[in-house]
Model the fold of this input.
Amino acid sequence: MGVETSGTATLARPDTQDQPVVVVDNVSLAFDDKVVLKDVSFTLLPGHTKVILGASGSGKSTILKLILGLWKPDGGAITVNGHRVDRMNELELMQMRADVGMVFQEGALFDSLTVAENVGFKLYEETDMPGEQIEARVQEVLGFVGLAEFIGRMPSELSGGQRRRVAIARAIAAKPRILLYDEATTGLDPITAISVDEEMIKLRDLESVSSIIVTHQLRDAFFVATHEAGRRQDGYDIVPADAQKCDEAEFIMLKEGLISFEGNAAELRASTDPYLKSFLS
Amino acid sequence: MLQLLDAWLKGAVLEIQEYVRLQSAAIRGMFSRPFYFHDVVEQFDQIGIGSLTVVLLTGFFTGAVLALQTGITLDQFGARPFVGRLISASMVKELGPVLTGLMLAGRIGSGIAAELGSMVVTDQINALRALGTDPIRKLVVPRVLAGLFMAPVLTVISSTVGIIGGWLIAVFQLRVASSVYWTSVIDGLYLDDAWMGIIKPFCLGYVIVTIGCHVGLRTKGGTQGVGRATTNAVVASSVAVIAVDFFVTRLLITLLY
Done:
C-alpha cells in the first residue's frame, strides 16, 4: 500500500505510539427526554481494537457518529488524534476525517456510482492525486478485500457481503489510521461474516489501523479479538492470537446508555454479571 | 391542545431555521472552495435539458388555448386582431414564468427531494460526510445554481413556444393574418415586461430547488419517509411558486412601472 494521498488538508497526528488515538471522556447525549449516552468514557490506543457490544438502541452506533463528528455530544469531550472533535467546525471536521474511515451498516455505497468510483470517491473528490495513481490505489484496495474483478460493477449487482467489503475498501482507500465499523457483519451469513472479520484483522495487524467495532454479533467480535494476521510469502495467515495480542482488543458493554463492562475477551467470558451472561448465552 | 400548538409552532420555527441555514450554507458554498464543477455541469444538463420537453409542451398548448379562449372574447369587441398583444403580454409576464415554475416544481422539486431523501435514509449523506465531502457543496450548490440559471432559460423558451402556439391558432383558426399577429405581439411587449419575464423565474427556480433540497435532506423514516418528502416538496414548492410570483410581481410593478 505504497501510494500517498495528497491535496487534502489534514490535522496534525500525535507523534508517540503510546498516545491514545481516540479519547471519549464523560460523553453524554439525550434526544428530548430519552438519554442515549450517559458519562461514557474510554480510550483507543494505536493499533488496538475496541469492540462495543450492546442491545439494539443502546447507543452503540451513536458513539461512532459522535467520534466522527456527525453529531455533537451534549456534554463531555471527544478527542481524535489529540484534537477536540466536539469543538470543531465543519471545515475542521472534514480535515479530521482524513485520518478516520467508517464502514456503515449496510455499506451505504453510492448507488449511482460503480464500485471503482465508490472506492476512489475520496481520492477523486478531495485530493489532487493523479487519475492513474487513484486507479492503481483502487485496484490495490479492491485486491486487498478480494474483489478486484468487481471493479466495474454497480453496487446493486453485488451481494450483501461484497457490498460490505467494498465499503471497507472505500473506507481504507485514503489510508486512514482509525477505522470505525458500524455493524459490519450484521445480516451476513457466517462464512461471509468471517471473510469481513478477516479484513478487519488484516487491516489491524498488517496495516496498523486502530479500530472501533460496533456489533451485536458476538461470534464475530470474539473472532476479531482472538485472532491475528501474519504475513506469508504468498499472502497472509489468520491464526489464533497469543495472550498479549488478545489483550489489545477490549470489549465495552453498553446498557441503557452506560458502560456496564470493560475488559478483554477472557474477562468478558468469565463475567458473572447476569445481564452479560444473558447477552452471551 | 396547547401542547399540540406548542409542538407545532416549535416544529415550524425549526423548519424555517433549518431552511435559512441551508440557504446560507449554499450561498457560502457558491463563493468558496471546494467547488464541484463537474456536478454543476451535470445538474445544468439534468434540470435544463431534462426539463425541456415538458416545458415546450406546456408552453405550446398554453399559448394555443389562450388564443382560442381570448379569440372568442375579443370577437365580442371586434378586437380579434389584438389577440397577439394579449398572448405575448400574458405569456411573457405571467403564464410563462408561473407554468414553467409549476412544471419544474413537479419534475425537479420531486426529483431532488426523492434523490436526497433516499440518500439520507440509506446513510449515503453520512457516508459523504465521513469521506470528507460536504453534502451542501457537493449536492445542494450544483442544484441551486442549475435552478437559478436554467429556470429563466426554460421560461424564455416556454414563453416563445407559447407565442408560436398562439400564432398557429390565430392564423389557422381565428383567420388573423400572420403579419397582423406578429405586429400585435411586438406592440404588446415593453422592455419592462421582458425584465419581469426574466427576473421572476430566477426567484422561482431558486425557491423550487432550495425547497426540494431542504425537504430531501430532512427526510426521516425509511422509504415511506422518502414518499412523504417527495409529496411535501411538490406541494410546498408549487404553493411557493404561486406565492413568490405574487410578491415578486408586486415588487417589480413598484420598481419597473
The radius of gyration of chain B is 21 Å. Chain B has nine helices and no strands. Residues 219 and 228 of chain B are 8 Å apart (CA to CA). The longest helix of chain B spans residues 83-121.
